[in-house]
Design brief:
single chain, NADH Oxidase, 6 helices, binds flavin mononucleotide, four-stranded antiparallel sheet
Amino acid sequence: MDVYEALRTRFSVRAYKDSPVEADKLRRVLDAGRIAPSGRNSQSWKFVVVQDAELRGALAKAAEQPFLAKAPVIIGIVGLTPEDVMFCGVPADPMNCAIAIDHMTLAAVAEGLGTCWIGHFDQDTCCELLGVPPTAKIVEMLALGYPDAEMPEKSRKAFEKVVCFEQFG
Ligand SMILES: Cc1cc2nc3c(=O)[nH]c(=O)nc-3n(C[C@H](O)[C@H](O)[C@H](O)COP(=O)(O)O)c2cc1C
């Protein structure tokens, strides 16, 4: 599968089969995140892999999204330098972590797996559940597993609405 096919066929999977993710596939997905680029190559992230059913249930509750408990794997993507701001004024951790997550979502597609970004969750509760220290922050969680859903049609703004040349307009 080339990257364009992965881009085209990735979608947010909110229903998962009751099958575990094989250890070698999981490792390749995580490794795709590990090799992602980051500002100054800071790699200011940690990926907390959760497979324990009780813990997944608790995270799903803290995210108010019951489907999450059915995903056989939940990855907490933790930013290690929440106060870090780039010269351009944009926070570094969300940027770096997002790239790592996107690498993982595309690698997952190549492995026949599905993912869903989870940005709606209670930060304090999830940090406590995952043992994240106060110096760090969960940027996002990622559900991972075999999809039990078909890809819906993509709903996106038209190219011309999103892209402009030379000047903002
Ligand atoms: C930063 C971010 C946070 C998101 N948070 C959630 C979430 O908490 N729950 C959820 O079901 N989907 C979440 N999504 C998935 C988006 O709703 C989804 O990507 C968008 O509707 C486009 O659909 P697609 O991923 O199927 O192409 C999130 C996506 C991003 C990028």
